[in-house]
C-alpha cells in the first residue's frame, strides 16, 4: 500500500510521488495543522515550479495572435504557418509515450530541467529564424522539451508543496489556467512589436524558471532504511503503447483524438477568418486584438476547468457531462462555420467555446484516469500522447481545406470530428460504465483532474 507523504516529508518525497496509488488503495485523509495551512504559504520551490508551469502552458497559445503576422512578414501561407501548431503538438504527443520511461530513470528534477533547457534553446532559435520552415522545425524541439516538463511537473509540485495534495493541485490548476489565459495575451502584446517577441519572451521566462528550479528544488534526501519508501518502479520503454491494449483507455483516447481535432481547428484556424472579417469592415485586427480575444477564451477555459467542472461531474456524472460538452462544442463549431463573415459572431462564439472546453478537458481526463487501473503516470502519458495527435492533425489540414472548400469548411470538419467523438463515447459504453465513482485518495483525485490538462 502506498504511503502518502506527510507535510514535513514533502521535500524528501519528490521522486516517490511518481509511483501512484492504484484504485482501491486505502488511504484516509488525516486532518493536520499542515493541511489547514493557507494555500499561499508554500516553499519557494513550489512557486518556482508553478511559475514554470504557467510559462510552459503559455507556449500552447502564444503563437496564436502572431500567425497572420508571420504569414505577412515571411511570405508564408496560412497552411504553412498553422504547421507551427502541428510540429509542436505532434512531437509533444509522440514524446508523451516515452516520458514515463524517461522520468523513471532520470528522476523528477532532472527530467524537469532537461525539458526546460530544450524549451529555452528552441524558443530562442525560433525567434532568431528567418524562414517559416525553420520556425516549424524549432517548434518541434520546443514540443519535445514541453513534453518532458509537463509530464513531471505535477509530481514535482505535489511532492514539494505543504498543506496536502489538494492544495498542491489547486496551485497546479491555477498555473495551468494562468498559462492558457495569459499566453495569447502575451503573444499579442509582444507580437504587436515584432512577431519574434513572443519567442524570445518565452525563452527568457523559461530561463528564469530553469534557474529557479535548479536552485530551489532540492533532490530527495536518502531516508533511514526503516522509514524508506519502496523505490519507484522503472517503467518499460513500450509501456505507453502497451497501455492501449486496455479497452477503456483505448476507447477514451480515441474520443480525445477526435475531440482535440475540433479543439485545435478552433484555436489554430480562427485568427484567419477573424482577420478577414475585420478587414472587410475596414478595421485593423492585429496581434494585440487577437491576443485579447484568446485571452478571454483562455480565461473562460481556466475558470470552468477549475471551478465548474468538478461541480458538474459530481452533480450529473462524468458521461452525461462529456456528452453535453461535446454537443455544445459541436454547436459552436457549426456556428463558427456560419459566422465566418461576422467578426462579432466569431469573437463571441470563440470565447463562449472556452467555457465548454474547460469542463470537457477536466471531465475527460477524470474519465480516463478512473476507467483503468494502469499506473497513473503511464495512463495519463498514453492518453495525452493520443490526444495531442488529434491536435497536431487539425492545423495541418485546416488550411488546405479552407483553400479548397471555403472559409467555413474547417469548422464543419471540426464539428464532424466532435460528432464522431460522441459516437465513440457511446460505443465505449460497456468499457467505461463504472466511471464516476468517488476517488479513493486526495492524490488520485488531484491527478485525475490535472494530469491530462497539460
UniProtKB/TrEMBL annotation:
One protein family per Pfam: MFS_1
Biased composition (Polar residues): 13-36
Record's keyword terms, sorted: Membrane, Transmembrane, Transmembrane helix
Location within or outside the cell: Cell membrane
Disordered: annotated span: 1-36
InterPro entries per record: MFS, MFS_dom, MFS_trans_sf, Tet-R_TetA/multi-R_MdtG-like, YfmO-like
Major facilitator superfamily (MFS) profile domain location: 45-433
Record Gene3D superfamilies: MFS general substrate transporter like domains (1.20.1250.20)
Membrane topology: Multi-pass membrane protein
Protein name in UniProt: MFS transporter
Organism: Leucobacter alluvii
Amino acid at each position: 500500500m502506498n504511503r502518502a507523504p506527510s507535510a514535513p516529508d514533502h521535500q524528501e518525497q519528490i521522486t516517490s510521488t511518481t509511483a501512484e496509488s492504484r484504485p482501491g488503495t486505502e488511504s484516509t485523509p488525516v486532518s493536520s495543522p499542515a493541511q489547514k495551512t493557507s494555500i499561499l504559504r508554500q516553499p519557494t520551490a513550489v512557486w518556482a515550479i508553478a511559475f514554470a508551469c504557467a510559462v510552459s502552458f503559455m507556449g500552447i497559445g502564444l503563437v496564436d495572435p502572431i500567425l497572420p503576422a508571420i504569414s505577412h512578414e515571411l511570405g508564408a501561407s496560412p497552411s504553412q504557418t498553422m504547421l507551427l501548431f502541428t510540429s509542436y503538438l505532434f512531437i509533444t504527443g509522440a514524446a508523451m509515450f516515452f516520458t514515463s520511461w524517461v522520468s523513471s530513470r532520470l528522476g523528477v528534477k532532472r527530467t524537469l530541467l532537461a525539458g526546460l533547457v530544450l524549451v529555452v534553446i528552441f524558443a530562442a532559435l525560433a525567434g532568431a529564424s528567418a524562414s517559416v520552415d525553420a520556425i516549424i522545425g524549432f517548434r518541434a524541439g520546443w514540443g519535445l522539451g514541453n513534453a518532458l516538463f509537463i509530464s513531471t511537473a505535477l509530481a514535482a509540485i505535489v511532492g514539494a508543496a505543504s498543506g496536502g495534495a489538494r492544495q498542491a493541485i489547486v496551485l497546479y490548476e491555477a498555473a495551468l489556467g494562468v498559462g492558457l489565459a495569459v499566453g495569447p495575451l502575451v503573444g499579442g502584446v509582444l507580437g504587436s512589436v515584432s512577431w519574434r517577441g513572443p519567442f524570445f519572451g518565452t525563452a527568457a521566462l523559461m530561463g528564469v524558471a530553469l534557474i529557479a528550479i535548479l536552485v530551489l528544488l532540492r533532490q530527495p534526501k536518502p531516508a533511514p532504511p526503516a522509514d524508506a519508501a519502496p523505490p519507484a518502479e522503472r517503467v518499460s520503454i513500450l509501456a505507453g503503447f502497451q497501455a492501449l491494449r486496455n479497452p477503456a483507455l483505448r476507447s477514451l483516447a480515441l474520443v480525445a483524438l477526435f475531440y482535440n481535432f475540433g479543439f485545435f481547428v478552433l484555436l489554430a484556424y480562427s485568427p484567419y477568418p477573424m482577420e478577414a472579417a475585420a478587414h472587410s469592415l475596414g478595421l485593423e485586427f492585429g496581434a494585440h486584438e487577437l491576443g485579447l480575444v484568446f485571452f478571454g477564451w483562455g480565461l473562460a477555459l481556466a475558470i470552468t476547468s477549475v471551478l465548474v467542472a468538478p461541480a458538474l461531474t459530481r452533480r450529473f456524472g462524468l458521461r452525461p457531462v462529456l456528452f453535453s460538452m461535446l454537443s455544445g462544442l459541436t454547436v459552436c463549431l457549426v456556428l463558427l462555420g456560419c459566422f465566418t463573415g461576422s467578426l462579432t459572431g466569431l469573437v463571441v462564439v470563440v470565447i463562449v467555446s472556452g467555457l465548454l472546453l474547460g469542463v470537457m478537458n477536466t471531465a475527460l481526463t477524470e474519465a480516463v484516469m478512473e476507467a483503468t487501473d494502469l499506473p497513473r503516470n503511464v495512463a495519463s502519458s498514453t492518453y495525452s500522447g493520443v490526444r495531442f495527435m488529434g491536435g497536431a492533425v487539425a492545423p495541418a489540414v485546416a488550411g488546405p481545406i479552407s483553400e479548397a472548400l471555403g472559409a467555413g469548411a474547417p469548422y464543419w470538419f471540426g464539428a464532424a470530428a466532435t460528432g464522431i467523438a460522441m459516437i465513440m463515447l457511446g460505443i465505449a459504453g460497456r468499457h467505461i460504465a463504472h466511471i464516476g465513482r468517488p476517488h479513493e485518495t486526495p492524490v488520485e483525485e488531484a491527478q485525475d483532474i490535472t494530469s491530462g490538462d497539460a
